[in-house]
Task: inverse folding
């Protein structure tokens, strides 16, 4: 298949109804940072600005909001929202305040609630809860810091306490 | 050196673990410009964008915890990383503005024996350089002007977007250009300058992440620059380590040195780079160092 | 005491129509216009939609009629400074700004302008053309009296020395008039939004990104380029042109949240004109919704597509980039109907920007004692039952200053007649 045929296949697969949820739009609108979905007029200015959208058909911010408003919950939650860079260019340009870059956070939190988190993000989050940082220095770097007189990077147990209290740990499957 | 102003230094996670060159340069340069840096004790991750998505309240509490540490020190925060800066700044603004949210977060923070009061502000190194130090002072401290050096700047998304959030600061994409020119170098324009480096997609979709940095590096090559400077450690990784990855996976070689802005500033102020600093650069900066010393 | 006379503020088509209607009923009418000539926006247009009639051809006879009507006193280059009183008995202070040319002596020959050494941008041409410091804003200006722009005048006296009618008087003083009228019509019209805040479109930075009013001036046969559309950067006639709709309209963030009502219509008209001017051209209209409501307009848009080959793309572009050497423009957009992200290179970009009330409409409202909304539009207290009324009995409004409505010329004319009729109720019956 030519690349445009696979692209078309991909696009069609996105709009093939798996399980339409007509209430999904309101679920997202009522989730914090998701309020913007109700304001979208599908003008496409975000899609014309998105750097990811320029490189691949896999992600398109206007289409993301369209999916949400039409109730294609599965596609919106699991396939599209994690490709957003959070570069906020769309937010800078949206004339109606739909702000797809913010809606993405709401979608991801709904996905995370159901246990769907990409491996890379999950690893960062687990490290955060367990040590207080998303990434820690290796032993050689730790030694280097000490030899240069730089303060050490210590584990922060308070973070785990907070994560347990807010339910963050539970979302990550920790306890 | 007299200290005109002091800040609580917020390092974040990435810099102390992987980019000591940024930390070392900052610790050398800022005191020499009259900015005192005080280490914060017990800080944790700020809650970057990948984390914010997973638990909104959790993010607020994590970031607020760090703000509380600065409040106890009665010092404003200076963050080195764009993501740290924007995360802490957004939480600071939200909690200052929304009483109910603040109460909710303080209730959570009680397990850490902390309480957010809203008494400090969050700034980025570039803010401190432009506002507290000022371009004139920086110019006066340059003993090694970078004349003839063609420098491209990568400001990074989270220092300037969304514009509404940064409206009070009045900073735009030209901020790094102005700073570079204060060092005597030439700030060179290039295609796609304002587009994201692709950093946030690392470990989520490496191919896409690489495509974006590749696009930017190709534009940098076309603009015939001597080097590119960054303000954010993620942009740095995308361009520096990114060039190695692109060389092996996409068979494209750019050989464009990548420096943290504060590093370039330190060279212009006559400070010699140390071994550990030089070794961290995966694309050698020897060419630049030789031009200057 | 019922004063059977009226004041009309604003000399555009709405103000002109209201004046004629009132005057024809025997009401003595003062038509006050801020700029040196009446005519307003309609005088700036080339053709009207959807019939593609010549705008000035329709307007000029009405302008002359105003000038000649025995019941109309034309007070151009004048402004209303104070209003006292109530319906039937308003006392109005009007300041006649000095033209430094005596209206009763000037014959409009233009010799003065030919000799004037100063050239400045012409406001009438929206920055696309120039005029002299002593000038007529456009060839069909009414009254045909030259005006000196003292801010740019060098006081060299050349105009005075070449004027055979001895009309130039560089020492002229402003004159204050006191008018007693029974009613007032507000017809101040609109300004065009300059989208400097929408930085991603590069207006003000990129030379070949212009507003629709600037294009109109180029299209106009009596305009600065004699009817030739030229790229500002190099004067070349553009082959590819893109119209961007809703720039600053329907915009909660960078402009005005309302729909300006006439932009889709005039974009279709302008696109057709460009295709007619240059048959090998490619013209694109980037729209979000094509709002061509009303009689004849959807048909006109359909013709634009089928007969004239105008390309319609449902998309609001994300950004415009400029090639620093050629000054050509590249649009990045998503075609929302085919769902593909693309870029398009064009020679010229025309922004259909928002239309808003004049910048001094709030100040005038204060003088009159009427309310305006946060944008400066008049607010009829009973917008359904008495849509031309204002808060003050005896003061009515018409035209775009009432709000976007449909905004096109026939509607402004209708509203003007409605305003005149409404005022006549008060003036004729002798009671409120």
Result:
């Amino acid at each position: 298949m030519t690349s445009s045929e696979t692209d078309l296949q991909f696009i069609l697969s996105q709009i093939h109804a798996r399980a339409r949820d007509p209430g999904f739009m309101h679920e997202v609108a009522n989730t914090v940072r998701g309020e913007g979905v109700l304001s979208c007029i599908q003008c496409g200015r975000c899609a014309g600005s998105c750097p990811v959208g320029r490189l691949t058909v896999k992600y398109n911010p206007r289409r993301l909001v369209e999916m949400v408003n039409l109730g294609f919950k599965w596609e919106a939650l699991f396939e599209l929202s994690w490709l957003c860079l959070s570069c906020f260019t769309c937010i800078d340009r949206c004339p109606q305040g739909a702000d797809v870059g913010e809606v993405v956070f709401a979608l991801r939190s709904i996905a995370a609630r159901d246990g769907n988190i990409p491996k890379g993000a999950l690893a960062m989050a687990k490290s955060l809860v367990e040590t207080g940082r998303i990434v820690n220095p290796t032993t050689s770097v730790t030694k280097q810091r000490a030899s240069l007189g730089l303060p050490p990077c210590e584990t922060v147990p308070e973070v785990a306490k907070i994560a347990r209290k807010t339910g963050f740990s539970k979302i990550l499957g920790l306890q | 050196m007299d200290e005109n102003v002091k800040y609580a230094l917020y390092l974040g996670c990435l810099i102390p673990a992987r980019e000591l060159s940024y930390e070392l340069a900052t610790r050398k340069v800022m005191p020499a410009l009259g900015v005192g840096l005080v280490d914060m004790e017990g800080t944790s991750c700020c809650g970057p964008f990948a984390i914010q998505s997973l638990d909104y309240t959790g993010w607020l509490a994590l970031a607020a915890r760090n703000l509380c540490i600065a409040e106890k020190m009665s010092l404003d925060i200076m963050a080195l990383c764009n993501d740290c800066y924007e995360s802490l700044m957004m939480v600071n603004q939200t909690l200052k503005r929304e009483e109910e949210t603040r109460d909710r977060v303080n209730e959570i923070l009680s397990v850490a024996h902390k309480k957010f009061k809203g008494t400090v502000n969050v700034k980025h190194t570039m803010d401190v350089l432009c506002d507290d130090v000022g371009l004139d002072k920086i110019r006066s401290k340059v003993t090694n002007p970078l004349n003839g050096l063609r420098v491209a700047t990568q400001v990074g998304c989270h220092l300037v977007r969304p514009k509404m959030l940064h409206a009070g600061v009045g900073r735009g994409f030209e901020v790094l250009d102005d700073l570079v020119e204060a060092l005597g170098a030439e700030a060179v324009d290039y295609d796609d300058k304002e587009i994201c480096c692709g950093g946030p997609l690392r470990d989520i979709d490496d191919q896409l992440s690489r495509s974006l940095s590749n696009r930017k590096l190709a534009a940098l090559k076309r603009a015939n620059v001597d080097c590119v400077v960054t303000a954010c450690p993620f942009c740095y990784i995308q361009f520096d380590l990114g060039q190695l990855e692109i060389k092996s996976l996409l068979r494209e070689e750019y050989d464009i040195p990548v420096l943290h802005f504060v590093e370039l500033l330190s060279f212009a102020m006559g400070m010699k780079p140390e071994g550990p600093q030089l070794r961290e650069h995966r694309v050698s900066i020897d060419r630049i160092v030789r031009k200057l010393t | 005491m019922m004063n059977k006379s009226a004041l009309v503020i604003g000399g555009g088509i709405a103000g002109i129509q209201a004046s004629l209607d009132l005057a024809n009923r025997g009401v003595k009418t003062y038509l006050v216009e801020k700029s040196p000539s009446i005519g307003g926006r309609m005088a700036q247009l080339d053709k009207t939609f959807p019939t593609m009639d010549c705008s000035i051809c329709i307007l000029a006879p009405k302008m002359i009629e105003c000038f000649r009507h025995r019941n109309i006193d034309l007070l151009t280059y004048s402004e209303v400074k104070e209003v006292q009183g109530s319906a039937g008995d308003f006392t109005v202070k009007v300041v006649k700004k000095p033209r430094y040319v005596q209206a009763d002596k000037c014959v409009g020959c233009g010799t003065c302008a030919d000799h004037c050494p100063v050239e400045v941008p012409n406001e009438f041409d929206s920055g696309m053309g120039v005029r002299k410091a002593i000038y007529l804003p456009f060839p069909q200006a009414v009254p045909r009296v030259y005006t000196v722009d003292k801010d740019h005048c060098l006081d060299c006296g050349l105009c005075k020395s070449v004027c055979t009618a001895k009309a130039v008087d560089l020492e002229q003083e402003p004159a204050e008039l006191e008018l007693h009228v029974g009613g007032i019509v507000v017809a101040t019209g609109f300004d065009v939004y300059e989208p400097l805040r929408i930085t991603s479109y590069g207006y003000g930075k990129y030379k070949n990104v212009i507003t629709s009013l600037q294009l109109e001036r180029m299209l106009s046969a009596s305009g600065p380029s004699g009817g030739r559309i030229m790229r500002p950067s190099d004067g070349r006639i553009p082959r590819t042109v893109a119209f961007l709709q809703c720039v600053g309209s329907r915009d909660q963030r960078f402009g005005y949240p309302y729909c300006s009502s006439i932009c889709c219509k005039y974009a279709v008209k302008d696109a057709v004109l460009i295709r007619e001017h240059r048959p090998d051209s490619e013209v694109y209209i980037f729209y979000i919704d094509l709002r061509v409501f009303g009689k004849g307009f959807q048909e006109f848009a359909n013709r634009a597509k089928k007969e004239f080959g105008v390309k319609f793309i449902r998309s609001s572009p994300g950004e415009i980039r400029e090639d620093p050497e050629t000054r050509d423009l590249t649009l990045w957009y998503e075609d929302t109907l085919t769902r593909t992200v693309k870029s398009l290179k064009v020679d010229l970009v025309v922004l259909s920007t928002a239309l808003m009330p004049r910048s001094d409409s709030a100040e005038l409202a204060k003088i009159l004692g009427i309310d305006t909304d946060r944008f400066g539009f008049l607010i009829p207290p009973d917008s359904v039952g008495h849509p031309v009324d204002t808060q003050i009995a005896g003061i009515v409004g018409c035209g775009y200053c009432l709000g976007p409505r449909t905004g096109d010329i026939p509607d402004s004319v209708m509203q003007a007649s409605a305003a005149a009729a409404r005022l006549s109720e008060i003036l004729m019956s002798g009671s409120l």
About this structure: Chain A has eleven helices and no strands.
